[in-house]
């Protein structure tokens, strides 16, 4: 197979995705507003959703501001230097651990230029050190450990800082991408879909494929890979733990539901750290440029949206009971088994086709020399791993039940209320079911994300393999869900 000439710094362009510039604008500036909406509408002041939102005919802005905890000093109160400095300090600690701790050097896949990039992998080590420090602090000070109370007290400001950082990184890599030249000795190149010529779209989708920067005293950092697995994924665990601590401060105990979600999500995250090298064959690394889409997704969307359920349960402490707990663990186990075994099968086949675990599998060999599996997990569906991933999303939301709660004043004497230490009472009330728009959002969003990824991958593979891909699809008919889709 002839490789693309190394003189080509810019792969061939292809069409817009995400509905082009209008879609890029909507996602870049609409999704941050959606995250703010979740943060304010589902709160520990009045309820989830805020009671005023359930009575739109009598809704007043002043009433809504009181119920959602809108800052007294207005929009400027959404940000603070204290939260921004703390968040930047967290990033700095992560960078220092990245440099100081032992690491494995792994080569990435072949680039269109014919070269390969080297990656430094020690995410498991560095994040384990961080978690150990947090565990030690919690053991010493319990739920009042300053990290947990700081997150609770400055949640909105930390969200704002995260959005600002994602915008700043996206802008930095966009501007810097114009220094990519043909025959780049550092193997820098542009992403195939990231140099459309439209400023907004290219800033959003990512112009450079694998932007890297040399940080003083730290060394070279692959920005995309670092953001994918480090601050956001670690932040996911940290926020979950912060909400467990808040539930304990509110009620003096933690429920099996919030512990279940926190643990199963942590297992999922640890699995990605343990199999860090597997990220090198994902579309995010091999195909997508790094821009606003991935920066926001890694640093904002993942930690703040994926923890909506534990944040909810920190105020409305539902319990699963033994049967419910077993059901959730069984469901997560099934999804994890499909996800991990399918990905392991693919990686084993790519790295060592003679391995006894995969040597019996049948495949189509394309004109490009690639081999497409037609039996095993990948003969069941073209993205069977996505199906396992989606199954895992259900136990993240199901523990919240028919979500929705109202917070009543101390001494209300409501029947069946959860009573906080400060005397306030939490009941489902008229909010019952409405909170599902928040706590079950992840399941719906994740399904849309996976379907979109599947279709993007289908287009990419059709461009790459041509009629061989059409032949493959006739053998492996289902996209994600066998027998359904």
UniProtKB/TrEMBL annotation:
It is found in: Membrane. Signal peptide: none annotated. It is a multi-pass membrane protein. InterPro entries: ERG24_DHCR-like (IPR001171), Sterol_reductase_CS (IPR018083). The chain crosses the membrane at residues 21-41, 122-143, 155-175, 251-270, 290-308, 320-339, 433-451. GO terms for cellular component: endoplasmic reticulum membrane. Belongs to the ERG4/ERG24 family. PANTHER family: DELTA(14)-STEROL REDUCTASE (PTHR21257), DELTA(14)-STEROL REDUCTASE TM7SF2 (PTHR21257:SF52). This is Delta(14)-sterol reductase. It comes from Hirsutella rhossiliensis.
């Amino acid at each position: 197979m002839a490789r693309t000439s190394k003189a080509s710094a810019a792969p061939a362009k292809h069409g817009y995705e995400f509905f082009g510039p209008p879609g890029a604008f909507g996602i870049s500036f609409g999704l941050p507003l959606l995250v703010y909406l979740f943060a304010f509408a589902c709160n520990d002041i009045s309820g989830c959703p805020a009671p005023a939102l359930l009575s739109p005919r009598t809704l007043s802005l002043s009433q809504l501001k009181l119920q959602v905890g809108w800052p007294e000093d207005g929009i400027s109160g959404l940000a603070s230097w204290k939260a921004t400095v703390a968040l930047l300090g967290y990033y700095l600690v992560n960078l220092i651990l990245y440099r100081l701790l032992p690491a494995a050097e792994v080569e990435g896949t072949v680039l269109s230029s014919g070269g390969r990039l080297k990656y430094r992998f020690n995410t498991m080590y560095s994040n384990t050190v961080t978690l150990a420090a947090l565990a030690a602090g919690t053991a010493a000070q319990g739920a009042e450990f300053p990290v947990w109370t700081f997150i609770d007290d400055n949640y909105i400001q930390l969200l704002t800082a995260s959005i600002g950082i994602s915008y700043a990184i996206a802008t930095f890599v966009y501007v810097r991408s114009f220094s990519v030249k043909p025959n780049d000795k550092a193997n820098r190149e542009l992403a195939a879909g990231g140099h459309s010529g439209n400023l907004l779209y290219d800033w959003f989708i990512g112009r450079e494929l694998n932007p890297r920067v040399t940080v003083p005293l730290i060394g070279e950092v692959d920005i995309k890979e670092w953001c994918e697995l480090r601050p956001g994924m670690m932040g996911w665990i940290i926020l979950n733990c912060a909400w467990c601590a808040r539930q304990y401060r509110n009620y003096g105990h933690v429920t099996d539901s919030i512990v279940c979600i926190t643990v199963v999500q942590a297992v999922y995250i640890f699995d990605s750290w343990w199999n860090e090298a597997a990220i090198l064959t994902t579309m995010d690394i091999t195909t997508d440029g790094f821009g606003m889409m991935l920066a926001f997704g890694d640093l904002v969307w993942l930690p703040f949206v994926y923890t909506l359920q534990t944040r909810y349960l920190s105020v409305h402490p539902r319990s699963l009971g033994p049967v419910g707990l077993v059901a959730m663990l069984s469901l997560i186990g099934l999804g994890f088994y499909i996800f991990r075994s399918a990905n392991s099968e693919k990686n084993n086949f790519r790295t060592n086709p003679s391995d006894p675990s995969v040597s019996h599998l049948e495949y189509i060999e394309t004109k490009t020399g690639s081999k497409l599996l037609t039996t095993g997990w990948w003969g069941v569906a073209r993205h069977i791993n996505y199906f396992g991933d989606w199954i895992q999303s259900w136990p993240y939301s199901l523990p919240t039940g028919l979500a929705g709660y109202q917070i009543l004043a101390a001494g209300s004497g409501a029947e069946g209320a959860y009573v906080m230490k400060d005397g306030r009472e939490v009941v489902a009330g008229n909010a019952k079911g409405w909170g599902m728009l928040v706590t079950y959002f992840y399941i719906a969003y994740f399904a849309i994300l996976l379907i979109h990824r599947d279709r993007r991958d289908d287009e990419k593979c059709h461009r790459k393999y041509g009629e061989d891909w059409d032949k493959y699809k006739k053998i492996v008919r289902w996209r994600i869900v066998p027998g359904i889709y």
